[in-house]
Design brief:
The protein is α+β, with helices and mostly antiparallel strands. Helix content is about 25%, strand content about 35%. The strands form two sheets. It has a five-stranded mixed sheet. β2 and β3 form a beta hairpin.
Length: about 140
């Protein structure tokens, strides 16, 4: 057990400017889309999903003024910018799915790459996107570390 004085002895510099650690920001939001997928050569029926998406970002930099990686409001705005183009849409009609099957696997990869490009300009590294097509079935597309 740590002595009381040792317990509160924290390396503030390592927290504010990590050398061996990183911060991971996790953010969840929802959108609704429809799709139909072809499996084994047979096109399935068009159906709706209420997708839950979890976005995981990493940074070793904190904003020196606010001591935060990124404000959740800013992250929400970025996610909305991307997801609003999918919300209440038929995925099969969207440009990425002219050549790709709109499966949850492919959609998670497409969303990852779109979010990654936007977040890179904010000096935040996108680590992964998990996309649930139902409460208990989802796919994660993430960077290999």
């Amino acid at each position: 057990m740590l002595a009381v004085d040792d317990f509160w002895n924290i390396d503030s510099e390592e927290i504010l400017h990590p050398r061996e650690h990183a911060f991971e920001v996790v953010f969840d939001t929802f959108f609704i889309s429809r799709h139909s997928v072809t499996m084994n050569g047979r096109r399935g029926d068009e159906h709706v999903h209420s997708y839950r998406i979890q976005i995981r970002c990493r940074s070793t930099n904190l904003d020196s003024t606010n001591q935060m990686v990124v404000g959740f409001t800013h992250l929400r705005e970025i996610a909305h910018e991307v997801l609003s183009r999918y919300n209440n849409r038929l995925l099969n009609e969207l440009p990425p799915f002219r050549n790709l099957e709109p499966t949850t696997e492919v959609l998670s990869g497409v969303l990852f790459h779109q979010l990654e490009r936007i977040l890179a300009s904010n000096e935040i590294e996108l680590m992964g996107v998990t996309l649930w097509e139902s409460p208990d079935e989802g796919i994660t597309y993430e960077k290999m570390v």
